[in-house]
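Lab notes, practical 5.
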Amino acid sequence: MSLYSLTRRGLFAAAASTALIAGLGLTTAPAIAQTPPGVLIVGQIAEPKALDPAAVTAVNDFRILVNLYEGLVQYKSGTLEVEPALATSWEVSEDGTEYTFKLREGVMFHDGTPFNAEAVKFNFDRMLNEDHPYHDTGPFPLAFFFSSVASTEAVDEYTVKFTLNEPYAPFLSNLAYPTGLIVSPAAVEASGADFGRNPVGTGPFTFAEWRSNEAVVIERNPDYWGDPAGTEAVVFRPITDANTRVAEMLSGGIDMMVEVPPTALSEFQGEGYQVVEQAGPHVWFLILNAKEGPFADKLVRQAANYAVNKEALVNEVLEGTADVAAGPTPPAFAWAYNDSLDPYPYDPEKAKELLAEAGAEGAELTFYVTEGGSGMLDPIPMGTAIQADLNAVGFDVKIETYEWNTFLGEVNPGLEGKADMAEMAWMTNDPDTLPYLALRTDAFPENGGFNSGYYSNPEVDELLEKARVSTDQDERAALYKEMQEIVQDDAPWVFVANWKQNAVTTDRVENFALQPSFLLELEGVVKN
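Output from the prediction step:
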């Protein structure tokens, strides 16, 4: 019998309590059911797309993956600084194009096969080389992170060398990101395209089962090379409706909930709960289709930025849990953030003037909104408020709402021929990541990037290319700050909010902390 089967009775009892709370119309209640001992139940915001770290892009999925897999390096707790993980040390050549890693010896994948340099080479060749026999187990949408890698060489059993085609400042940071997590080559060979449903890594937890739209279950790895995990198992439950997640938390159906709706935070201020907050590099924005339709005109894009009341969104809809965004770079990257830029002010009259100048009064817009998703905050109320603001200045906005993974399937391939605008949020690891993947001309969706609005400015392209190859942080900062000025004026997005992430746990949960990376590291968590 599976662990999940053993815990189902406790889960269903908790779910019944949730239904009772909802049925009675109660907004608060003590935890009237308890989750099983030794098992941490986490309320996730959506069903994962897959459990292959090279094949997914959403933080919702990464929150599971970082507990199953490890990378050569990882983010030091509480920071975005890089420290050893499966690699114990590394050296960088003087010209910044060779990275040589010494690997941790004696580490085994969950399937009993050894972790070594050949395994590392397999991982990066699978992602980057189209002629690799398992490249067809992708696609690998964030392979852009490692586009500078010319070759990966297994020097000996526990030494691996990456040769880059040019210096690349974010390389170590990208290795620490979940796209750099190392999977078992033998498991990929055994499962092929189904590896994402049968994950095998080296991490503190092993995969137990995945019941679609019910739960992903991971269990403590008894053979882990490091300190053993603090819980017997973790159950990740996809609860897409925010109000239902809150009710589950109040009823005792889950032990932990990420991305608490701002309107519900006050419910958890009393005894029995712990609210955890952590700043990080997040930006919430509207992608505008700059290729066709009204937003192909810069004046209309600027009008949208003036039309949306961002202060009302962050203070009323988000209840002060975010700040108004001024551009594409989050202020959490203090060294690269252009603090001389002010956000677009709320100025509906200016918006009307720009629309009149562009001859775009009454422009009809299709607006993609999601029900929920990684870092998306409160997307339906936000979308409705944005629609009202845009309509008030002369747009005619029609909303289409989608479940998160369906939404990504519509937005990521590009808005051309489908929509004029779409909500989006990114949590990133380096000031290079978001603009390079979503604002460059070469990052159009047909090239494998995430520039779903088809923004193109050769000056921005040049600044981004220069910044990523510079090894001088002051020079990189100056380049990113100049890029922010240009992008803010071009307005390919409506810049809305920078969020401070949050989570809530019951008081039975100890040793839990949120990370600036937005990842959910649970190996040290204990449930009493």
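Observations recorded by the TA: The mean pLDDT is 93. The chain has 14 helices and 20 strands.
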